[in-house]
Amino acid sequence: MGFIVHTREGYRVDVPHLLRILLSALLLLAPSTLARSPMPTDPPRGDVRIVVFGDFNGPYGAVTYPDAVRRVVHAIGDVWRPDLVLLPGDLVAGQSRALPDERFTQMWSAFDEVAAAPLRAAGVPYAATMGNHDASSLLDPGGAFAFERERVAAAAYWSQPMYETNLAYVDRHDYPFTYAFRHGEVFVAVIDASSARVDDDQRAWLRSVLARPEATSAALRLVMGHLPLVGVSTKTGPGEVVTDGPEVARLLQDHGVDTYVSGHHAAYYAGRWGGIELLFAGGIGARPILGSSAPPRSAVTITDVWLAPLRVRHTTFDPADWQVIAGTSLPERIEHPGGAVLRSPRALP
């Protein structure tokens, strides 16, 4: 085989050569191993299918991902075949001043290799919002971005033409932080909720873009931001939800938005708050849901949309075992001073 070498002293193993052979074998086996692993079911398909998957980064500076991320990406391309993938943030593991400058580029390269490139190869359009670990908008006391390096690296990655996906942008003046696009009968506005600050400028932009014909004529209007408008997991301290979340929710409702999609809390919940649907995406690794005794579970959600009449159904899987997370396992209501979040019937059979 070439990795046992004869010398005057006897035989020895050429370890570097052996390691190269083993690595090559593993790389050849990886796709077939994924293909042989258990796969999730394929729910009844609507006129439009959206997969929502986020919060899958590792510890600070990580350039590897849990195996569950590859399994989800494989299922997206081979089983669910959605029209669109929404990534509600925390895709890389920044927000640390201890990391060297070059690590941010390395992390985005790892994200591309594991998640984005396979989606492009499968012909699946995707859109992301920046999470606090991707490009936090938190300001320091002087008014500058506290994590400027992360924001520069995120902008550099997402601005590369080779990483473009097949989306019809309506407004991308501040891409990838704030932008909007129309995909068939679905209109999506992406806000920079990578910190609790969704300022007056963003709200004014939202009012403007949601009033455009591309939005008003769409059958379904979504807004995606990383931090939720209200808390549903045990991660509900200061700075963990959008400041003035009820006011932002009213703005969305007034402009015909159907659903606000968020991440950050690492807890899957499909709810309704006042007149707007909320989809808390969950992720890889999970936190307990307020008012629930059920164990936390990782999550990826398939949202199927029937257009005439409009009907939406969420099917959510735990990538650890591909079991469906039953909507009946979610609390019927989560109490908040600003009004209870009610379990959405869209998560029920």
- The CATH homologous superfamily of the largest domain is called Metallo-dependent phosphatases
- State the distance separating the first and last CA atoms: 57 Å
Helix proportion: 25-40%
Report the β-strand fraction as a percent range.
15-25%
Q: How many strands?
A: 17
- Radius of gyration based on Cα positions: 22 Å
Going across the biggest sheet, name each strand in turn.
6-7-8-9-10-12-11-17-16
- Series of H and E elements: EEHEHEHEHHEEEHHEHEEEEEEEE
Total domains: 2
Largest sheet composition: 9 strands, mixed
Number of separate helices: 8
User: Could you please say which CATH topology of the largest domain applies here?
Assistant: Purple Acid Phosphatase, chain A, domain 2
Unreliable stretches covering 5 or more consecutive residues: 1-33
Shape: globular
By secondary-structure content and strand pairing, the structural class works out as alpha/beta
CATH architecture of the largest domain: 4-Layer Sandwich
The CATH class of the largest domain turns out to be Alpha Beta
Average pLDDT confidence is: 90
